[in-house]
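How a chain folds remains the central question behind the approach discussed here. This step matters because it turns folding into a mapping between discrete strings. The sequence in question and its structure tokens are set out directly beneath this paragraph.
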Amino acid sequence: MLDWLYTVISWALARWHALFSTVLDPASGAAWALAIVALVVTVRSLLLPLVLKQVASQRAMAELQPAIQALREQHGTDKQAFSQAVMALHRERGVNPLAGCLPALLQIPVFIALLHVLRRLAPGADGLYSWSYDLTQQAANATFAGAPVSSAFRMAEPLRSTVLEQTGAAETRVQVVALVLIVAMSATSFLTQKVTQRRAGPAEGQAATVQKVLLYGMPASLLVTGFFFPVGVLLYWTANNLWTLGQQMVLLRRLPPNTPALALPL
């Protein structure tokens, strides 16, 4: 059912690789690493209109906080009445609380597809979706900083032996590169959440709890699960975090927390 998505991601990756191969060695790790970073740019550029709507939604939600607090005081311990009143307020003001989650949710299938594609890469593997056998072997043997893009800090057999023997990469080298990327991925995730929450402004109650979970829980989970991600996926996620971090810093400068939603450059 998801084969079409795997095909689209592998096709986009191959097209970017072909472009960079006009100036770089097609078999070089640099061409494949740049193709992965370019995939980030492609996905995030397509999502930019939704990001602007996300910012507008967050600002609208922030402006509703005084009214929501008044409703909380009005209904006291009657949680059902309070929830209904808040939903009515959202409808009245045309605010959708879920709109802020859409850009992040749409990136999940892309990440899963890339993870699936890179996990299938291995020397001797059949052609990958839209790729030829030769292109698949080229990608399987490509390295980033000396570590194959298909390798991971923790690899199960027989993939571990196949990747290390066929590419000639040292396991220690793979683990060092993967560890550096895991730390970078987790650190950029933390910084991104920090800047995002700073732009969103202070939160109270349940929203504050969610912010803490995202701020500390997400980087911690990445620090654990990253040991099983291929180097190419770690590179993709780190580049994606850096894009988000830069984007949020630009928005924070242009749109400080007390800027009215109407001033958004939509």
Observations:
- Residues 3-263 form one domain.
- The radius of gyration is 22 Å.
- The longest strand covers residues 143-144.
- The first helix runs from residue 3 to 20.
